[in-house]
Each structure stands twice: as C-alpha cells, then as structure tokens.
Amino acid sequence: MTMVNLYDLSRSELDDFVIGLGDERYRARQIWDWMYGRRVDRFDAMSNLPKATIAELRETATLGSLELVARQQSRDGTEKRLYRLVDGQLIESVLMPYDDDRKTACISSQAGCAMGCVFCATGQMGFGRNLAASEIFEQAMIFARDLAGRGERLSNVVFMGMGEPFHNYDATLTAVRQLMARLKIGARHITISTVGLAPQIRRFADEGLQLRLAVSLHKTVDAQRSALMPVNKRWGIHALLDACRYYVVRTNRRITFEWAAIAGENDTEEEAHRLGRLLSGLLCQVNIIPLNPTGDFAGLPADTARIENFSRALRGYGVSSTVRVRRGIDIDAGCGQLITEVLRDMPVG
Ligand code: SAH
Ligand code: SF4
C-alpha cells in the first residue's frame, strides 16, 4: 500500500482520510493542529490521539517525503540542506537567520532548471523535474518545525533556490497558498524570483496576491542578455519590461530587479546608464549581488568600488538599488548557485 503524505492533503481531504481510517472527524482537526500549529515531526508526539490512531497513522501515512542527505552550517548561521526526493532527485534549501530576528528560507521549485543561464550552477545541471507543491512546501515546513522547536519562527520565504518557479507555476502558487495558510507567513514576506517568463508575470499580476516579485535582469542589451540567459531569445527585454509594467500597474507593487554583478560584463558605467534609462519611472528597485563564481562560467564578481559607482549612476535616474550582503560563503549556500544573502535590505511592506 502506498503511504499518504499528509502534507499533500487539504484540511477537508484530511477529514476524509481520518474518517476513512474509522476515526471521528474531530481527530482530523487535532492532527492538523499538531502538524501546522505545534509543528511536530512525528505521529508519536500527537499526545491527545488514541494509541490505536497513532499506530494507524504510522502504517498508512507520512509527514512529508523529503529525505535529508546532508546539512551544513555556515559561520554566519546560514544553514544549507540537501534532500533526496522519492525518485532520487536532489534539491537544496537554505535558511538564513538575520540579526533583526528575521528567518528566511530559500527554497527550490524544481530539481535542476531548464532555463540554462550560463552563470548559474543549477542551470549548468540541466532539468530534472518539477517539484510537487508538497515538496516545495515541505522545505519551508522543515525549517519552520526546527525553528518552532527553539521557540523561533520562520518569517520569510524566497523562491530563489533551484529551478524557475514560473516554469512550475501551478505547484508554486499552491505551495505559496500553503505557506500562507499553514505556516501563517504573510504574502508580503514571500518573494518569487523569476528569470523573466513574461506570460507568467502577467498571469501572476492577475492573481491578486500581495507577494513580492523579483525579476532577474542582469543585462540591458538583448544580444548580451541572450548570451547569458537563453530564455531572453523567447521573451526579450522589451517583452519582459512590458510584462513588468503590466504587473506594476495591475498590483501597484514594486518590482525588484536582480543584478548579478559580473566584473567587466555588466558593472560598467555605460551599462548603469542604460539600466537607469530602462527602469526610470517604473516602481522598482535593483538588488545588486556580486556574482558567485560557478564551475562552468569564467566570470568573476564585480568589485565593491565598481558596484558603488554603478549604484550611484542608477540614482541619477531615480532608480534605487541595494547591494546584498553575501551569506553562507563558506558553505556555498546558494541552493546550487547563489551565495545567498537574500533580501537583507529589502524594505518590508
Ligand atoms: N530561477 C529563478 C530563481 C532562482 S535563481 C531566477 O532565475 O530568478 C535566484 C537568483 O540567483 C536569480 O536572480 C539568479 O539570476 C541568481 N543567480 C544564479 N546564479 C548566480 C550566481 N552564480 N551568482 C549570483 N547570482 C546568481
Ligand atoms: Fe534557472 Fe534561475 Fe538558474 Fe536561470 S538563474 S538557470 S532560471 S535557476
């Protein structure tokens, strides 16, 4: 018999499941509360359930499906986890604690990625498969559970791990709704980062959610962006910016453009002026992240002085930017690509 992963079940599906076991409906509420209120990681801890119910749950159900393969802790407190999925695929997620009590989980939406960005370790791996909503959700759930055990709370989630969330749109949005309903993470504390799939940006704008949207731009000239990010051949900068403007108008929310600063590639003053002109007047900000060098890409991170110049030039166009602090450098905590430092200085709200 195949085991049921309880994280796959909605509240009413859990009712049906519990009734199917021959138990009373109110037990489902108790189990739900243990899972998402108290956040226990095993059935034995559900101490107000009859022993027989616990035994049945153990025989028929699981709490999650991710198998922890490895775990690393950085000197700055960043924690990286590697999981094996039921079919053997591997994914990573990262937890970043900040000084102000914020705890941010960086999670994966796919095993590997089909977008092939040349500077990205995940892109270099190629595509494995889409994750199910429960596999996306569980990555955050595990961190939330561990934090709850220490009296702490997972406050933010960013979709900046492996994969392109908008290439796995439905599961990503289902997982987002689970994060909000089950872990009580506010929409404004959840960020989706996309390589720039224009149709999905429009679709996302129509969802009526208050999430944050980050768009990985990295270049302002089509031929050059296409060389770094092949998806640009399908949706070029013009189409992408059109979709971004639609998002801003529709949601009245600010977009964050991500800029992996690569020495000599996109850290020049000329490029800053082009970017300033491109974004001028749009409700947005730029997050500059020094490139994290990866195996198959020869690029190096831009240096601090260049980044400061770049940022100053952008200001001349009324475009604000932040430079992210690099996190987890000693453990390569990039969900396979980024030395993650995500969103420390992004304003909340
Ligand atoms: N697929 C999505 C989200 C995952 S990647 C996207 O591309 O937006 C999260 C961020 O890390 C993106 O902005 C991506 O461009 C950036 N990134 C990937 N590889 C990087 C590297 N080697 N150094 C710095 N940033 C990188
Ligand atoms: Fe995929 Fe994002 Fe990496 Fe590009 S940067 S290959 S879209 S994970």
Folded structure, characterized:
This protein has 349 residues and is α/β, with parallel strands linked by helices. 35% of the residues lie in helices and 19% in strands. The chain has eleven helices and 14 strands. The protein has a ten-stranded mixed beta sheet with strand order 3-4-5-6-9-10-11-12-13-14. Strand 10, helix 7 (198-205) and strand 11 (212-216) form a beta-alpha-beta unit. Helix 5 runs parallel beside helix 6. Mean pLDDT is 92; it is low at 335-349.
- Span between N and C termini? 47 Å
Profile the largest sheet: 10 strands, mixed
Shape descriptor: elongated
Question: Main sheet: which strands, in order across?
Answer: 3-4-5-6-9-10-11-12-13-14
Gyration radius, in Å = 21 Å
Distinct small-molecule ligands in the complex: S-adenosyl-L-homocysteine, iron/sulfur cluster
- List the uncertain runs: 335-349
Share of helical residues: 25-40%
Strand/helix succession: EHHHEEEEEEHEHEHEHEHHEHEHE
Number of helices: 11
The averaged pLDDT comes out at: 92
Structure classification: alpha/beta
Number of strands: 14
Strand coverage percent: 15-25%
